[in-house]
Amino acid sequence: MKIIAVSGSRRKQGNTASIINKILEPFIEEGHDTETIYPGNLNIAGCSGCEGCAKTGKCIVKDDMQDLYPKIIEADAIIAGSPTYFYNMTSDMKKFIDRCYCFFSFDKTDRSVWVSRLTKNKTRFAGIVSICEQNSAEDMGFTPAALNAAFSSLGYRIVFNQKVLHVFKAGKILEDKNQLEIAYNNGQKLLKTLKLDRNL
Ligand SMILES: Cc1cc2nc3c(=O)[nH]c(=O)nc-3n(C[C@H](O)[C@H](O)[C@H](O)COP(=O)(O)O)c2cc1C
Questions:
Q1: Residues 9-21: pLDDT tens digits?
Q2: Would the pTM of this model clear 0.85, i.e. be above it?
Q3: Which one of 133, 147, 162 would you pick to mutate in the ligand 1 pocket, going by the greatest count of ligand atoms within 8 A of its CB?
Q4: How would DSSP label each residue in 10-26?
Q5: pLDDT 10s digits, 102-150
Q6: Residue identifier of the C-alpha nearest atom 15 of ligand 1
Q7: If I label 74, which of 32, 114, 139, 167 is the partner at 20 to 30 A Cα–Cα?
Q8: How far apart are CA 26 and CA 161, in angstroms?
Q9: CATH 3.40.50.360 is right for the domain spanning 2-198
């Protein structure tokens, strides 16, 4: 199976990356193909709203996102993790999501009727992680809900929605055995869900 993770943080030793690594562990242990993508470290423009994708479902903006589209299509599941920046996901995560607009197909005369092209041939699964510095869920703002809504609309069934509070310094989360265990268990749950769906 192929699993991709998308990190809204640019910090490869950061808290988001550390939790993502833990979630991926059960997949790596079984030899599945995993890759973590850092949109903030790539050349990806925000969506220009040109509607160039409307007919074909293919984005016409030629940047690093073009390398990611086949990976998104191929992946059995996606893990989307973002730190909270000003009560929401980071702009790096948001630009990645906005560029997934090309996966939507709208009815020609009624735009309230739409589907995601990603659900055409297989069931999609996702796991969500939100991380913030402050102590209360309020300070995480819209992050978990915004990630949940975006990936649900793209056709992913959200298998878990992990919320990590009160970590600031990069990698500080590695001292929190409880959150690491939750992350590992979430990875296992996603793996078991995929196996059940794919009859493996
Ligand atoms: C620009 C910016 C905005 C932030 N906004 C918030 C916020 O609104 N609420 C919060 O609790 N933490 C906020 N933080 C703290 C980060 O969410 C926190 O340090 C997180 O652990 C970073 O994750 P990372 O190590 O994966 O980069 C902010 C950090 C930055 C750099």
A1: 999 999 999 999 9
A2: yes
A3: 133
A4: --TTSHHHHHHHHHHHH
A5: 999 999 999 999 999 999 989 999 999 999 999 999 999 999 999 999 9
A6: 133
A7: 114
A8: 17
A9: yes
